[in-house]
Amino acid sequence: MKCIYLDHSATTPVDPEVVTAMNPFFSMHYGNPSSMYSIAEISRDAIEQSRSTIASFINASPKEIYFTSGGTESDNQAIFTTAQKQKHKGMHIITSSIEHHAVLYAFQQLEKEGFDVTYLPVDSYGIVSPSSLQKAMRSDTTLVSIMHANNEVGTMQDILSLATIAHEKGALFHTDAVQAIGKVPVDVQLMNVDLLSSSAHKLYGPKGVGFLYAKKGTPFSSYLYGGGQENKKRPGTENVPGIVGFAKAIELAQNRSLDDHQHLQNLATFLTDGIQNLVSDVLFTGHPTQRTPGHVSVCFKYVEGESILLMLDSHGICVSSGSACTSGSLDASHVLLAMGIDSATAQGSIRLTMGRQNTMEDMKAVLNVLPEIIEKLRKMSPLC
Amino acid sequence: MYTKKVKDHFMNPRNVGSIENADAQGEIGNPQCGDIMHIDIKVENGVIVDIKFQTFGCAAAIASSSMVTEIAKGKTLIEAEKLTNQMVADALGGLPPAKMHCSNLAADALHRAIQDYRRKHPEVE
């Protein structure tokens, strides 16, 4: 059975060109970048070249890019170390109620450690209003972290407005851009952010590598103890093949972003219209236009998400869900609940995120089976 | 993650639906946790002659509902009362640990239906 992969917000297949770029750095150029001899220089140069490629892609200086193991580590380092380093200035920090757990749980931990945390609400589209941030800002606020694009519903925030408000009160601004980079333009100068997290495997790069952008002069520090790598901000031997692959993925994104954007938009529109026409009692979630391309999130009333997911899987179609069962907790997705969607409806959520390789045929295949799956499950449902 | 038996009962659930003029009904769960199970029974001479379910929930919830109806059909009320959620999970070849509490409530729904029947028919053993 052909696999129709529609979960690109979870991860993406590594692009063959990325694999080719990485290959020499496993068994041929394996030198430890910290070593003195010449083969190490090849690794060192590859890292610095990758750093430059990535820096120019987001309009940063190479010295402002710190390689990490991925989005979670970048988020954790940005949040914990800046909050701790600015403790003398204040203990109030702000985030939104729809963050990825890598941010949300970091804030909850800081709360346990005595920080005062404000979780900003969102509207029904998942937008954080600049005025709510304005109201929440205090003289002792030191850090604001609000995600660029939401993983579950695709909604994008007006980062420039939010960052400007944070700066007016002297606070730092961090954004988790894991879902945005490679899909929409990300320019740290235009967005006016101090810190930004990214991960390679969301944009056809390898798993296990990411970066933290930290604007020159930002008070952050190493989160681990060890060697002096990454300008003493991130100890540990660098993941050279991963870093090289990340840079290649960024390069490909740069070349293809316009084509990708249009293609993904077309697929999402076709799928959304199809679902709307073929299935009753559906609720599309997230902002209709201010969202990442190729992202469809929808709740099917009276049925549960895991059941839809598994029935689609039996047809070779891979999607994800925000139901309690699939979120690994006892409640449905905190994102959907924060957007004011009732629990029962949120249980029926499905996320379909398209990628470069998907075709209109894939969308048609989904529309071919989805209506009957929903009908079958609704026949079983006592809520119908 | 799920056993073959769970997948079979999930993809081809037995005894789905409701019974017209059911003798008794039982329901358990709530939409917040994502599982609601509803069971209808028809009883003759103390024996469950027909049983149907409707379930809102994950694969484990649907499969355990289907399994409980299969086991209970043809059993006396006294026999059916002895069924436990654990027995239903065992009959399915086991359920993932995370599903044992929230989604494995089918026997409880059946017990509620039997309680409902006994309330209406106190004379039956």
Cα distance spanning the termini of chain B: 41 Å
Number of strands of chain B: 3
- Compute the CA-based radius of gyration of chain B: 14 Å
Helical/strand content category of chain A = alpha/beta
SS-derived structural category of chain B: alpha+beta
Compute the number of structural domains of chain B: 1
Low-confidence stretches of chain B: none
For the largest interface in this structure, which chains are involved and how many residues does each contribute?
A-B, 23 and 28 residues
Main sheet of chain A, how many strands, which sense, barrel? Answer: 7 strands, mixed
Number of domains of chain A: 2
Spatial strand sequence of the major β-sheet of chain A:
2-8-7-6-5-3-4
Question: Which CATH architecture of the largest domain in chain A would you pick?
Answer: 3-Layer(aba) Sandwich
The main β sheet of chain B shows up as: 3 strands, antiparallel
Strand content of chain A: 5-15%
Unreliable spans of chain A are: none
Rg of chain A, Å, rounded: 21 Å
**Mean of residue pLDDT values of chain B:** 93
Structure commentary:
The complex is a heterodimer of chains A (about 375) and B (about 120). With about 375 residues, chain A is α/β, with parallel strands linked by helices. Chain A has two domains: about 5-10 and about 255-370, Aspartate Aminotransferase, domain 1, CATH 3.90.1150; about 15-250, Type I PLP-dependent aspartate aminotransferase-like (Major domain) (Aspartate Aminotransferase, domain 2, 3-Layer(aba) Sandwich), CATH 3.40.640.10. Helices cover about 45% and strands about 15% of the residues of chain A. In chain A, helix 8 (about 190) links the parallel strand 6 and strand 7. Helix content of chain B is about 40%, strand content about 20%. Chain B has a single domain (about 5-120), classed as Sufe protein. Chain: A (Alpha-Beta Complex). In chain B, strand 1 and strand 2 (about 35-45) form a beta hairpin. Chain B has six helices and three strands. The model of chain B has no long low-confidence stretch (mean pLDDT about 95). The relative contact order of chain B is 0.23. Chain B is globular and about 45 Å long. Chain B has about 120 residues and is an alpha+beta fold. The interface of A and B includes residues 310, 311, 332 and 347 of A.
